Amino acid sequence: MRHLKILSTSDVHGFLYPTNYSQRDDQQPYGWLKAATLIRQIQDQAGPDDIVLTIENGDWIEGSSFDSYLATAAPDRASLLSKLPQDLHYDLGVLGNHEFNYGLDYLRECMADRNYPLLGANIDGAHAQGIVDAPYQIFKKKGVKIAVLGLTTAYVPVWEPASHLTGLTFQSALATAQHWVPKLRQRADVIIVAYHGGFEANLVSGEPTERLTGENEGAQLLTQVPGIDALVTGHQHRLIAGVYHKIPATQPGDKAVAVGEIDLDLDEELQITGRRAQLLPTAAVTPDPELTAKLAPIQAQTQDWLDTPVGHIGGASLRVTDHLAARLHGHPYLNFINQVEADAGQVDIAATALFNDDVAGLGETVTRRQVLNSYPYPNTLVVERVTGADLKAALERCANFFTLQNGAITVSETFTTPKVELYNYDVYAGIDYTFDLTQPQGTRVTALSYHGQPVQADQQLDIVMNQYRGNGGGEYPMFRASKIIREINTSVADLIQDYLVAHPTVIGQQPQNLTIKR
């Protein structure tokens, strides 16, 4: 009897330490250094018949202020991001969609020094570009042949500018698995699919939980690819562990709040006789002391870099304390971000999002820490020329963010279930618009004007937005690459800091251009 334990981390997003970097002494109940303690314990305690296989499932090099420091201030040290999984004896890695945020050159730099393979079966050209080693790997451990097929969400080109994906083509994860799994079945005893993607349907009923765009194909992998023995997922930041359609599957959230664990029992003929899946929470775990000490110098440098003052705010406060109110009525902070975007794009219509309810905005003395915590993504900007009908359709999508419950305005489940997507609601500057929440969806935008005149359906308008939205991300199909007339290839966080340098004191102003009726 042999026992195979499959451990996985996913969507760590550079949160190595248990902190969100909002303050120098902040402490949070997550972090990869905590996960490292659990993984090391399991690896060290493995018995003679135990096999432990450890997977890093993507979205590793972008997300936290630590990652931002490496990418913008110390790119020559970025390879430590591949050395950390190596130090913990990970067996393999998979690329997530956010691995492409800083471009291929930086991705290659991050992954330069490692002794474990990066797998990506559905990214054509990835091997030639030096970012993936193979579509799959067969590991031979204690007499068991274990094949792991690596997959990445095929939706990456929807979010990323073409300059970040030179020479790459993304294929359907489902179609790729259907091609490879039967071949691997003939060569290995156990087949694992490591997929940086999530689930598009309820895992029990099969009912779709989102529009079937190809972003998430995990449910179809479970039901339409015979031969998979275990499925490791990510991307959606959900906490999932169970056996579905006789296949154990995990998704361990984000920021290393948990480690995914799949257990397979194999008999003497190497047939699977037992299947289990669970998540191992990290909240109560002490960070790994060896790796913590190794990272301490660069962590201190990151904290010093974050405390650097970059500007000053006067007038209305840019601190965000009521996030729902900010989305309902606009906010001086969002107005400022739109001001920065409009200045960079040389237009007067701008859109931005309050990405999550952790966004605190900016204080009177603005530090780099505040900027990066409030605008955590390395988005660049695009200017799109759209019609009035396009703009109205985008605003209808925004209006659907809200719902009425007993007369009170709350966030619609469409934006919170199965995944929280608060970043898919935009606040606009440069137009005046009204949402009537008592009206049916699709007819809630009851007034829309530009420069004091009603917007006409065929009217052409130039709007600046981040490139994620400009490529249609967040189910905004009215925006697309073909409508881009100008690109601003500087991260929004850098644009914010540059604007503050050029304008030593910014005067906060509460916008008055959005009206909500209920």
UniProtKB/TrEMBL annotation:
<dbReference type="Pfam" id="PF00149">
    <property type="entry name" value="Metallophos"/>
</dbReference>
<feature type="domain" description="Calcineurin-like phosphoesterase">
    <location>
        <begin position="4"/>
        <end position="238"/>
    </location>
</feature>
<feature type="domain" description="5'-Nucleotidase C-terminal">
    <location>
        <begin position="326"/>
        <end position="480"/>
    </location>
</feature>
<keyword id="KW-0547">Nucleotide-binding</keyword>
<dbReference type="InterPro" id="IPR008334">
    <property type="entry name" value="5'-Nucleotdase_C"/>
</dbReference>
<dbReference type="Pfam" id="PF02872">
    <property type="entry name" value="5_nucleotid_C"/>
</dbReference>
<dbReference type="GO" id="GO:0046872">
    <property type="term" value="F:metal ion binding"/>
</dbReference>
<keyword id="KW-0378">Hydrolase</keyword>
<dbReference type="GO" id="GO:0009166">
    <property type="term" value="P:nucleotide catabolic process"/>
</dbReference>
<comment type="similarity">
    <text>Belongs to the 5'-nucleotidase family.</text>
</comment>
<dbReference type="InterPro" id="IPR029052">
    <property type="entry name" value="Metallo-depent_PP-like"/>
</dbReference>
<dbReference type="InterPro" id="IPR004843">
    <property type="entry name" value="Calcineurin-like_PHP"/>
</dbReference>
<dbReference type="GO" id="GO:0000166">
    <property type="term" value="F:nucleotide binding"/>
</dbReference>
<protein>
    <recommendedName>
        <fullName>2,3-cyclic-nucleotide 2-phosphodiesterase</fullName>
    </recommendedName>
</protein>
<dbReference type="InterPro" id="IPR006146">
    <property type="entry name" value="5'-Nucleotdase_CS"/>
</dbReference>
<dbReference type="InterPro" id="IPR006179">
    <property type="entry name" value="5_nucleotidase/apyrase"/>
</dbReference>
<dbReference type="GO" id="GO:0030288">
    <property type="term" value="C:outer membrane-bounded periplasmic space"/>
</dbReference>
<dbReference type="InterPro" id="IPR036907">
    <property type="entry name" value="5'-Nucleotdase_C_sf"/>
</dbReference>
<dbReference type="GO" id="GO:0016788">
    <property type="term" value="F:hydrolase activity, acting on ester bonds"/>
</dbReference>
<keyword id="KW-0732">Signal</keyword>
